[in-house]
Amino acid sequence: MSNEPAIETRRSRLATYNQVALALAATVALCYYGRLVLFPILLGVTVALVLAPAVDRLARWRVPRPLSALVLLTVTLSVMYAVTHLLYNLVVQFLDELPAHSSQIEAFLDGIRKRLDHLLSSTRLFSMPSEQGVSVHQPIDWPKLVIGGANSLGEFLFITSFVPFIAYFLLTWQEHLYRASVRMFALDRRSEAERTLGQIAAMFRSVLIGNLLVGLLMGLLSSVLFALVRVPYFYVIGMLSGMLSMVPYLGVVLALLPPLLMGIGRLSGTGMLVLGLGVLLLHLLAINLLVPKLIGQRVQLNPLAATLSLLLWGVLWGGVGLILAVPIAAAVKIVCDHIEPLRPLGAWLGDDLDGHQRHASRSEPSA
Fold first, then answer.
1. 59-86 tens-digit pLDDT
2. How many angstroms separate the CA atoms of 257 and 254, rounded?
3. Burial annotation 276-289 (CB, 10 A radius, 16+ → b, else e)
4. How far is C-alpha 279 from the chain's CA centre?
5. Sign of the alpha-carbon dihedral angle for 215, 350, 40, 176
6. CA distance 237 to 258
7. Neighbouring residues of 280: CB distance < 8 A, sequence distance ≥ 6
8. How many angstroms separate the CA atoms of 333 and 232, rounded?
9. Hey, how many other C-beta atoms are within 10 angstroms of the C-beta on 269?
10. What is the C-alpha separation between 237 and 101, in angstroms, rounded?
11. Which partner for 241 in 126, 159, 231, 255 could form a disulfide, CB atoms 3.0-4.6 Å apart?
């Protein structure tokens, strides 16, 4: 008889874990098969969260929200168009002269491949029977790799055309949607739901704006470094390397690839060493100084959770998934921290187990 409460508790906990597992599986399936619908929604929410403080400030100055949202969205789209047009011209100029650089890169890679082939052919353990035939190399579908489930650029443009409208209506109907979302919960849960939504919105806004500012600053510093080392097209490679450096835990490796590839055959061994050390120092500067100042402690994920989130959302949504992976994982952690049965999962995702235990102990009702 004394073991019955413990057995019932274990059964209840097991049932909760089963429900969570089924909910996660259903969510992953929905995110994969419904990604073409979720793309514009999430991008619209992202734009609305970034522009919401400016719209609120204009509203306090007695500017109507529809007008302020329309003006800010128009300015944002104009800036994005100007930047995209500039980058397009730079990329076209870069691609026109790419064959001169690609021959040097191919010669370097061919040398490495020949050495590997010689090593494998001289080792009986790894020797494979040679087969005569024509090898066909399938070209990489870069648009699909970057934009996830869209099958063509036209389909992607059609999907993203809904983003400004979604962001506009989210900004103009912000109060209504916020109150309606809170009222979807029971009366005793509404205050907790309000705090959860507020934390998620603040976290998304802080992470997105902070990463954008840090990426731009890192791009400028990288461009200066690459200009000093004399990397070809340092202005394009520098901005690309700076943005890639903001990918969590993999940024330093990704940031090194563009300048090293462009430096093959043009830079000496000393130049390549200076290039690698410079990128490493810039990455350490961003991680230890810029990110804590601009982003703060909004994202409280451990490295394994962030890496698994990057893997999951990168596979599901491509390049867009890599951008939103860490904020989505941080939002899941915030939700888990505010739901009693899911707090162990939130502790697993987090980076401060002691702090999570203190939060749980404060949330328990006193006798």
1. 888 889 899 999 999 998 898 888 778 7
2. 5
3. eebbeebbeebbee
4. 20
5. negative
6. 6
7. 252, 256
8. 43
9. 7
10. 13
11. 255
